[in-house]
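User: Here's a structure from my thesis project, written as structure tokens. My advisor, Dr. K., wants to see whether a designed sequence matches the one we expressed. Can you design one independently, without my sequence as a hint?
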């Protein structure tokens, strides 16, 4: 008996990998990931989290410990990447301005310049730029009894970068409340007694990643 004819099975197309999404991270020690392995810094954790499903590439990081806002401007200009365009840009800068006693007016001027540089990297798309607030290191052992003063000054610098971010229409990610949790949770601070641990950066990424995904999905 001849079996009935059965059409060949329909095989679903192989899933296509997501398009590559380029990423540049601008900042200082908090972007570089001082005192922890590079892969534990927030830019690398973000790329690892969003790489497979959303195509976010490992970041180009222009950041070093100790850089102030004007030093970051200089390094971006000197890097050779100033005209290169990226899909995602993060910017976190200001703690060393506060630490070195640079005036708030000078910081504001430099921060506006950096936001404009970030916008240029993002091809003028403000929603592809993510400003991250300055952590409050006043709660760490490094503060050595100066926590109240440091925290108040960090709040003032953050008020500036929040105001200017809002004016520019870029995303603002307020991680400062998370950083203050290090006052009662030592695991949120790296072994140097100052910088965030990988665990703290993971908490930052939990705030940042959903906002980045929203923008990656927008053509």
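Assistant: Designed independently from the structure alone:
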């Amino acid at each position: 008996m001849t079996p009935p004819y059965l059409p060949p099975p329909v095989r679903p197309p192989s899933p296509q990998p997501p398009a590559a999404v380029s990423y540049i991270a601008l900042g200082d020690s908090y972007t570089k990931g001082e005192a922890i392995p590079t892969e534990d810094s927030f830019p690398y954790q973000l790329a690892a989290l969003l790489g497979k499903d959303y195509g976010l590439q490992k970041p180009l990081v222009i950041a070093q410990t100790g850089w102030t806002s004007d030093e970051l401007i200089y390094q971006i200009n000197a890097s050779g990447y100033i005209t290169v365009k990226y899909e995602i840009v993060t910017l976190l800068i200001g703690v060393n301005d506060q630490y070195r006693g640079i005036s708030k007016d000078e910081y504001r001027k430099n921060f506006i310049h950096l936001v404009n540089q970030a916008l240029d990297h993002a091809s003028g798309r403000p929603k592809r730029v993510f400003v991250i607030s300055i952590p409050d290191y006043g709660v760490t052992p490094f503060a050595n009894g100066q926590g109240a003063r440091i925290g108040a000054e960090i709040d003032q610098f953050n008020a500036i970068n929040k105001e200017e971010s809002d004016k520019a229409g870029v995303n603002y990610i307020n991680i400062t409340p998370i950083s203050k949790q290090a006052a009662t949770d030592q695991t949120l601070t790296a072994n140097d007694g100052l910088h965030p641990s990988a665990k703290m950066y993971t908490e930052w990424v939990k705030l940042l990643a959903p906002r980045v995904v929203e923008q990656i999905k927008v053509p």
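When you compare it with your expressed construct, this may help: Helices lie at 29-32, 42-54, 69-78, 95-100, 104-121, 147-168, 176-180, 198-216.
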